[in-house]
Each structure stands twice: as C-alpha cells, then as structure tokens.
Design goal:
Elements: H1 12-16, E1 20-22, E2 26-30, E3 35-43, E4 66-72, E5 78-82, H2 93-97, E6 156-162, E7 165-171, E8 197-198, E9 205-206, E10 234-235, E11 268-269, E12 274-279, E13 310-317, E14 321-326, E15 330-336, E16 346-354, E17 364-366, E18 371-374, E19 382-391, E20 398-400, E21 407-409, H3 430-454
Parallel strand pairs: 8-11
Antiparallel strand pairs: 1-13, 2-5, 3-4, 3-13, 4-12, 5-6, 6-7, 7-11, 9-10, 14-15, 15-18, 16-17, 16-19, 19-20, 19-21
C-alpha cells in the first residue's frame, strides 16, 4: 500500500512513497483523488562520448539538466510527459571499419530523442585514401581518420491542460563529446547549462544542432580532425541561435584541440508553474568512459552513449478532517472530506485512537460513516486520527491520505446516547436538570387531567 502525504516538510517519506518514475518513453499520468498538486522532476538525457583517434581520446558527453516543478491540479486531469533518450557515441576508425565496407567518413553519434531531439555529432573525414587500393586495415591509413563527435541528449518534458490553458515544463539534454584528433584529445571546454526560463511559449521545442564535421578531405595529405559534439535538445529560445560545436583540426602538429563538446539545450517552464529546484548537471549522466586512444590497428572499445533521461511524479494529497461526538459510554466518529475527494472515491476509513476504543480493533476500519462506538469509559478522553483509503486510477492500487489532525471526545454519564449532531455533546448542569424535571412533571400532570375529563 502506498502512503502519500500532503506536505514534504511534514512527512517526506510518506510523500515520496507514492513517487512514480518513468523511463525514456511517452506516457501519461492521471491525477488521483485527493491530489491538489503534482511535484514533477524532469531529467534531460546525457550526451554521448566522442570517438577516438591515435593518441587522441574522445571527449565525454555532458549531463542533462534536472528540473523540479510543481503543477496545481485537480483529480482526473492528465499529465502527459516524455523522457529523452541519451545521445549515441561517435565512432572511431577501427570500430566503424569492422562493419562498414564502403569507404566513407567516420560518422558522429545520433542525437537522442525527446521533447527536443539532440543534434548529431560531427563526422570525421577520411584522409590519405586511394579508392583503387581497396579496403583494409592499412588502407586508408587508420591513423588518418579521427573520431566522430557524440550525439546530444534529448530533452524531457511534461504538460497538463487546465482551465487556464496548457502548462509545460522542459528539461534540456546535454551536449555530446567531441571526437579525438591525431595526438590531440578532444577539447575539455564545457558550456554550462543556463537557468530555466519562465516562458509562455515553453511548448516550443528545439532540436539540437549537429556538430561541425572535422576538417580535412580524402584527397588531403593532412589527417582529418575529430567531429564536434551535437548539442542537446530543449526549449526554442526566441531570437537565439546555437552555434555548432567546433570540430578539431588536423592534429598532425597543429596546436589545436580535438573536437569540442556540444552545447546543452535550454530549459523552461510555463508561467503559473512553481519552480522548486534546478541543477545544470543533475539529469541523465553524460558518457564518462570514451576510449582513451586508438592504436590504428586494434579495435578499441566503443565510446559510451549518454544515459536516458527520466520523469518522476509525486502527487501532493490532502488529508481529511475527523469529527467526533461524545455520548454516554459511547462516541460517534465521522469525517469531513476536502473538495478533492468525493465520497465515492473512498474505499474505507481507518481511525487510530488513544486509548483504544473499548474492545474494538486499533486502528478500526469502516466502509461507511458515521461510526458509533459503545462500551467506552465515561470521563475518559479519547483522541483519534483518521486516514481514508483511496484507489489510484493509474494502476488500481490503493493508497491512504495523510494522517489527519486529531479529534478528541470525552464520554459523559447522562449524555445523549447514541450521540447525535456534530462536535462534542453538551452535558446539562444541575440547574438545567431541575428545570428539565419540572417541565416533565408539569407535562405529565396536564396529561392526567385531560384523560380524567375524557372519562
């Protein structure tokens, strides 16, 4: 059984226990009964690593962005969302030549998909290639092909349609790593992700920009440079153009880096959504283990792809309010439901009381209210809290509302039994008992006189 709570600061474990995590695919989430808010964490996907060249390691991909927002919701509304997929790694010469026969440039990794796809890594051209000599491990010279850039990670998003319109939140993907060039590792320059933008057009997604292809040609005596990494997917910022990540140049003695890392995408959230937290590197992990180098003969381990993003949803559930009424050696328990919970939503109510309610179980569960309890001790104060068991429309599992504030009642001798009304039953004073007795006696005397006249 899951146990959400109404406020993270009060019962963090109960709140987190109803967290629903989603992988890299499109999905939806129906707001359950009792929920007034959804806390949604979006993690953009990481970028892939760049491929390697001889003594030139590929660059790592960047992490995706992590964005936590809060939507105001009503039960029955539907949150649509999708987590981005990680950018694929760029190829090295040897890795690519094992499966590809026609001579061609060493490709960069494909960008991840999502709410804004990642850009593809830049290709690394082949150099010193003689088409008439066929295809082999030494033709063209394996040292002549640098690594392809890694693909950018896809963005993750969530949206919900309310009475005031559709609200969006989008967490950007990370850029792909640059390809290594001969004797030159990929650049270690990192472009940090910017803070999320509050925007009315957060629904506009932007695909990442492809990395710049490496310099050099097949006919050039120079060796080609590594491809630049693809940029991450994200929000289409009006008037902003993202430049392709720079490729490495011919590494044979040139005093330059290998390919550069792609830029991260932009993140956003609609006006009307609460921003809870943001981390530029808290999303999907960028690749961290690209091959350090290629010796020009053996096949290096493939560079690592970026990890997928994710979406997690936590409903903020309202408590119900207990109501108690005292009787003579008895009590009545009831509850007031918030607007977010209909009576038909409730599977059962569970009261936990101190001390225990006579011989009844503790907690005592009931499907209907009010609940009358007998066999209680007069002048003993009983304090009770209540939770309601509800059904989750997403998977038909049950969960409970947060533990309520307590209600207290004290049975009294002579109190109305069984108790009625709401609140605590008032007990008459001695003077009030005398007035009640006198009124009863006068009514009885009048009734006797009427009966005698009829006789």
């Amino acid at each position: 059984m899951q146990n959400p709570t109404a406020r993270l600061r009060l019962l963090p474990l109960a709140l987190c226990s109803m967290t629903v995590a989603f992988g890299a695919h499109a999905a939806s989430y129906t707001v359950p009964p009792g929920a007034t808010k959804l806390q949604v964490t979006l993690n953009g996907a990481g970028g892939g690593a760049g491929g390697a060249d001889l003594n030139g390691g590929g660059g790592v991909g960047a992490n995706g962005v992590s964005l936590q927002v809060e939507f105001a919701v009503e039960p029955g509304q539907v949150l649509n969302h999708q987590a981005g997929t990680g950018g694929l790694s760029g190829y090295s010469w040897e890795e690519f030549s094992v499966t590809k026969k026609p001579p061609q440039d060493i490709p960069g990794g494909v960008g991840g998909t999502g709410g804004g796809n990642g850009g593809r890594g830049g290709a690394a051209p082949l150099a010193n290639f003689n088409p008439g000599e066929g295809w082999g491990p030494s033709n063209p010279d394996p040292d002549s092909a640098s690594g392809g850039g890694g693909g950018g990670g896809g963005a993750s998003f969530a949206s919900i349609t309310t009475a005031s319109g559709t609200l969006w939140a989008r967490a950007a993907g990370g850029g792909g790593g640059g390809g290594g060039s001969w004797s030159r590792n990929a650049s270690t320059i990192v472009i940090p992700a910017g803070s999320p933008v509050e925007a009315g057009d957060c629904n506009n997604a932007a695909n990442g920009v492809d990395g710049e292809p490496g310099s050099g040609t097949r006919s050039s005596p120079n060796r080609g440079g590594g491809g630049g990494g693809g940029s991450g997917g994200g929000y289409l910022v009006p008037g902003v153009t993202v430049a392709p990540a720079a490729a490495g140049w011919d590494g044979a003695g040139a005093d330059v880096d290998g390919g550069h890392q792609g830029a991260p995408g932009a993140s956003c959230y609609s006006t009307g959504i609460g921003l809870l937290a943001f981390s530029a590197i808290g999303g999907g992990v960028g690749s961290s283990t690209p091959p350090s180098s290629s010796d020009g003969n053996s096949v290096p381990a493939p560079a690592a792809s970026g990890t997928d993003g994710s979406v997690s949803v936590v409903p903020v559930i309202e408590p119900i309010v207990p109501v108690s009424t005292a009787g003579d050696s008895s009590g009545k328990l009831d509850a007031t439901l918030p607007p977010s919970i209909k009576p038909s939503d409730v599977v059962s109510y569970s009261y936990t009381c101190t001390p225990q309610l006579g011989s009844m179980a503790n907690p005592v569960e009931t499907a209907t209210l009010p609940l009358t309890v007998t066999g209680l001790t007069n002048d003993q104060a009983y304090q009770c809290t209540v939770v309601a068991k509800l059904t989750n429309p997403n998977d038909q599992s049950t969960y409970t509302t947060p533990i309520s504030v307590p209600t207290t009642f004290t049975p009294k001798a002579g109190a109305t039994n069984p108790p009625g009304g709401s609140g605590t039953q008032a007990v008459p004073t001695l003077g009030e008992w005398a007035a009640i007795g006198l009124s009863s006696l006068m009514a009885l005397t009048g009734l006797i006189r009427v009966r005698r006249r009829r006789i």
